[in-house]
Amino acid sequence: MVMKLHEYQAKNIFAEAGIPVPESRLASSVDEVMDAVEDIGYPAAIKAQVHVGGRGKAGGIKIAMDEDEARQAAEDILGMDLKGYTVDRVLVEAGVDFENELYVGITMDRGEGKPVAMVSTEGGVNIEEVAEENPDAIAREHIDPAFGLHPYQARKIVFDAGIPRDVAFDVASFLSTLYDLYEANDASDIEINPVMITSDRDVVAADAVMNIDDDALFRHEDLAAMEEDSYEDELEAKAGEYGFDYVRLSGNVGIIGNGAGLVMTTLDLVDYFGGKPANFLDIGGGAKASRVANALDMVFSDENVDSVVFNIFGGITRGDEVAKGINEALEQFDEIPKPVVVRLAGTNAEEGMEILNTDLVQVEGTLEDAVQRAVENAQEVSQ
Amino acid sequence: MSIFVDDDTRVVVQGITGGEGRFHTQQMMEYGTNVVAGAVPGKGGQEVEGVPVYDTVSEAVEEEDANASVVFVPPAFAGDAIFEALDTDLDLVVAITEGVPTQDMAKVNKRLSEVDTRLIGPNCPGIITPGEAKLGILPGNIFEEGNVGLVSRSGTLTYQVVSNLTERGIGQTTAIGIGGDPIIGTSFVDALEAFENDPDTHAVVMCGEIGGEDEEQAAQFIAENMDTPVAGFIAGRTAPPGKRMGHAGAIVSGSGTGTAESKINALNDAGVPVGDTPNEVADHIEDFL
Fold it and tell me: According to the UniProt entry, what is the EC number of this protein (chain B) (predicted)?
């Protein structure tokens, strides 16, 4: 989907492209924060570098007016838990004396199949609320990807948004540079909220969100190298290692399947039959036995899981390979940790059923029966 | 009748010398598809499964009269391969490749508006007209000739619903997987319009999923333009906001758009019954016929 850049990483990219950003330093200890503020001066912003939206509201951003406040902010923020992420670094940034706050964003409009640039004078607040309550406050322009953002379009957005005239051309040129970065880096979104108009009438990027289309990372080695593991939990990290599409949920029925749509459907059916899905795990197309075994290992590692349903409809995935993988994974246990229900259909399903060690798993013929049985198993275990 | 592919479809396989391309060429031919050529730059003059390989798509069109292509080219080169196919005036291009960069697809999308060629995909299982031709990776043996059209964003979910239909003796005119990416060629509306105009299609199954607004647009199209009855299914009812469920497009945004609920409501309002299970979708189709 996307690779998220940290604010400091995105700002480095902006600065290299000539977009003004406040003076800043990265710090990972209270001492480093104190060194940084000594150089940068007051007021200074101490900002948690984690991939979490709404950092400010959650207490991850503080403004320090003096040394005591800086130390306090550093102690509070470093090591804090921000929506499941531990903060191990902060960006120490010079406060900006601003007169206006703008919102500037570029994203892909799926419906149109084109990028769209957006500017609003109502920056500094939750832009999704603005979009809902006062959509006219956001000026937009779709971009033809063959030509890029025409200069006239950048000017049009700026005038439509009602940007103060004395900085209009500067904001338009800021937006053009931003689109160049969007295209050159295969970004999926760039969002700066706020862009500040300073008392000297300079245009400064005070925040920076930049996400990269991870399907395009093969042509951006520099960006790929910036990727930092930031999984919310150990299991998601493990899924990353195994290369699975995995999402952890809060229920107790573990789910493994092939193909996003069918796995989602299996989750929905668990819910429909009165159970609670523990995860989404797509083994992908054409999975071999070892991959199947890894998938079972993943789901067994989740303490919340009381029962597992394995649902495969083979197209390019072969039922015999899946069965082999399930046997391999389960034969290493003296006792199967959690009951496993298997349903195989499609390519080589019959061969798979013959191979499958039915001492170790329960077999069902239809999707509905398999899910219902797994839900029952979970209810029995959790009682 | 059928839509988009039939006995007369003459296929060039782009990427025919790769593992996937080779295997599925064999599978497509076994099913009866007219695979007339392969196209792989630098591999012109070779043969795969008895099929001549050319360096360019335009040569394959000139020499073998191909009118459709299937793309098995790796993601880094898939955008370029689709452009090549679009510039050769084919009727249909089916892109199977998963992981094509979104900005490449934005450029392809722009080109599509300038040509008459239809694109299906990318990141899709392809299209099949049972008994005539399949272009893609769908397992042919679960399909049966008949009068139900099917359009779906997901491959394996398509197989599930098709098997629920076939088990009851309900065959299909054509089944299309349109793909799970944010930017795709053929949309639900395009496929529904074609099914509406096909006299042999007596009912249609539409399988959507969370993310985007394509299903809502399809619902509006059905309400305004379709006499053929449609039954629906929406995957992702239990997906939490902000988490992507596998497909790049399958995400419920923080502001609540793209939810299963909004899609199901839109379909119900358009008179489309939505099954709670894939089997229930087959129940609805049985009622229609």
Answer: 6.2.1.5
